[in-house]
Amino acid sequence: MERGYRFITPVRADRLPWPVWLMLWAWLAWLLPGPAMAQDDWLRDSWREVIAGSPLDEPLQVDSQSRSHSVSGSVHARLHHPFEPLAEELASVTAWCEILFLHVNIKGCLVEEEDRVLGSGLALFVGHRDFAALVDAERLDLRWRVVDRQPRYLDVMLEGDQGPYGTRAFRLQLRAVPEDDDHSLVQLRYSLVFGMRGRLALHGYLTFIGRDRVGFTVEGTTAGGEPIHVGGTRGMIERNVMRFYLALEAHLESRDLPESERLEASLQRWFTLTMRYPRQLFEIDRATYLDQKWREYAHQQELAGE
Question: Which 3-state string (H, E, C) describes 63-115?
């Protein structure tokens, strides 16, 4: 007896009823992660891998790249701060002025007009490690904007055409994603381009004051097994991006305090954090740093008309 077969003619996709199409698309959207979620997962996994390779005693990795006319440094870190309040705080231009001011070389920061296209303006005043009134510091005009903000992703950018001391294309970028309910992963990247004046200024600095200064990247070891840290322009950019990152950390740790206590607490915390790495970051003692910062803050408030 021959076995009978029943052939089923497949239904052409272009003849499926619209309700069936909608059900299929809904099923696929549920099954497959969206582009934003896939990006966040990729960033989280890649940043975790970078941080895991850090030689430091905390979940923090510092790196740098140097070319003939430019230099960039980056910090990847794991912060004990939930993503939502962190993103809410760092999506504020005022918060960034408070963060940047903690850096020993930043003498003042003022928020200026806001443009819907270009973002908010920041006037940053840059000087050497000693006290400097704002009128004696070098002014750096920055554009601050939130590049992208999603439930699981934040991207904030600060850019300036002209950087301090003859540099240009100043760029400071922060990106953040949640790691879990209590932690966030961040990437802070800082870069500069050197013009002729900038190269001369940098050469003078590295020849004299910064001759023996180093960064965080370990390039090798001595005969006795001691680490050899990167120097030169890479060491310079690594020190500065780390100072900006520690300012971010100090600000986040003090943001819930009463306003009257916040500045003192963040200044104290920034100095304490930098003393984890005295070889790279020590410039002046705590009392001198605090005294200078309060004097510079007073000048900043006068200029702001407060």
Answer: EEEECCCEEEEEEEEEECCCHHHHHHHHCCHHHHHHHHHCCCCEEEEEEEEEE
Burial group, residue 75, by CB count within 10 angstroms (0-12, 13-18, 19+): buried
pLDDT, position 34: 45
Cα 247 to Cα 143: distance, rounded to the nearest angstrom: 19
- Which amino acid does the sequence have at 82? P
Which run of H or of E encompasses 143? strand 138-150
- C-alpha 160/C-alpha 279 separation (Å) is 30
Phi, psi (deg, nearest 5) at residue 212: -105, 10
Q: Residue 272's closest CA among 297, 235, 298, 247?
A: 247
| Confidence band for 135, pLDDT divided at 50, 70 and 90 | confident
Write the pLDDT tens digit of every residue in 204-259. Answer: 766 767 678 999 999 888 888 888 899 999 999 999 999 999 999 999 999 999 99
Chain centroid offset of residue 193 CA? 18
**Domain residue limits, the chain:** 58-304
Is 58-304 assigned to CATH 3.40.50.2300?
Answer: no
| pLDDT computed for residue 246 by the predictor | 98
CA distances from 67 to 70, 71, 194, 232, 233 (A): 5, 6, 10, 12, 9
* DSSP assignments along 174-187, one per residue: EEEEE-SSS-EEEE
